[in-house]
Amino acid sequence: MKKLHYLLFSATLLMGTSGLQFAQAQIKVEIAGVGSNQIPVAVAAFADEGIAPADVSDIIRADLERSGVFKVIDAGQAISDSANVDLAAFRARGADALVVGSVVRQPDGRFAVRYKLHDTVKGAPISQLGGEVQPKYIRLQAHRIADDVYEKLTGVRGIFSTRIAYVKDTGRAHALVVADADGENEIVAAHGRESIISPAWSPDGTKVAYVSLEDRKPVVYLQDLMTGRRNVISNVKGNNSAPAWSPDGGMLAVALSRDGNTEIYTVRPDGTGHRRLTNNPAIDSEPQFSADGQTIYFMSDRSGGPQIYKMSVSGGNATRVTFNGNYNISPRVSADGKTLAWISQRNGNFSLYAMDLATGQELRLADGATEPSFSPNGKYIMYAIKGGGRASLAVVSVDGRVKQRLSTNAGNIREPSWGPFMK
Hints:
Blueprint: H1 2-16, E1 28-31, E2 39-45, H2 56-67, E3 70-78, H3 87-92, E4 97-105, E5 111-119, E6 124-133, H4 138-154, E7 163-170, E8 173-180, E9 187-192, E10 196-201, E11 207-212, E12 219-224, E13 230-234, E14 240-245, E15 252-256, E16 263-267, E17 275-276, E18 284-289, E19 295-300, E20 307-312, E21 315-320, E22 328-333, E23 339-346, E24 349-356, E25 362-367, E26 369-374, E27 380-387, E28 390-397, E29 403-407, E30 412-418
Parallel strand pairs: 2-3, 2-4
Antiparallel strand pairs: 1-29, 4-5, 5-6, 7-8, 7-30, 8-9, 10-11, 11-12, 12-13, 14-15, 15-16, 16-17, 18-19, 19-20, 20-21, 22-23, 23-24, 24-25, 26-27, 27-28, 28-29
Helix pairs in contact: 2-4
């Protein structure tokens, strides 16, 4: 069912965007830092992988290296998943684990991709996967294998097979683009000549809510990635902005100025049931649900300058969360509920901060950052950054040790939103 989900998703977008000129240049990923205490993993070339459109082992290596968690060792040879391997030899080379596998072309044109993960210390297999995929899903299968390696060796679910959404600006045109987490397979989901902002993935990964100014004011739309249909979520009087999904997908929080002042509301995905949550003379905006769906974090200037607050999903009294710095905006909460990320202006600079919600301890992660978005496993944050006159995306781990830069030669990319784990 997962494979069909992804297949329909990609096919629908491709059919709906033929002739567009946004998605010609893929994102380039540059690794700027690595984590400490890396796990040494040897990755062998997969047996007969040259018959496939892409080398599976190369994609796995790139994924593991990009995470910053692993020290990848080239096995220097092709090893099948069915081979008898001298694990002691790889242990002697410093590898704690070994990835091997094979690719076999099937009579119907699909490829059977199999892999096995060995523990070189214990001298035993840890995990194995196998599946048959169409040629165009070779990369996806490789990402899934990398996810399995990551999870088996760290205990945390991998995010290599997830998707990201962002806005690409090319001249006077703007596009909502979705792509693999490594920037490959860019596809346009929506486009226009007016600005697009604030994309937000639905929890099931089939839809993206976003704001468009095509009606000469902000309106919140819902783009169905499976069917290609677009619906209006909120187009009431005034500005409609900052959509954020509840964890169960049953509602969205939005910021509306329908009564003159910008306040926080909730609304159903079909555009019905607007419900006001805040009632304050200050500006309340940028709502975000907590991981359990019971709390909404938001930005408010009710204390004299923009700060992060939280309140019950049913409304009522709000509690201030940020106290350091006079300008704190764009709250984001990790899916595991452990970390709050936001943008803070201090000493004239905008920086990305993260807070351990259990202890209140803050950590500055990156300077010059805007528009943060957590990976679905809560271990990384993607954000927008400007440099050299061009807007691009970057990724940093929540401990600040791993950093990546995602750039493209075609247009500016901004407003990232990291998609959920696919169901």
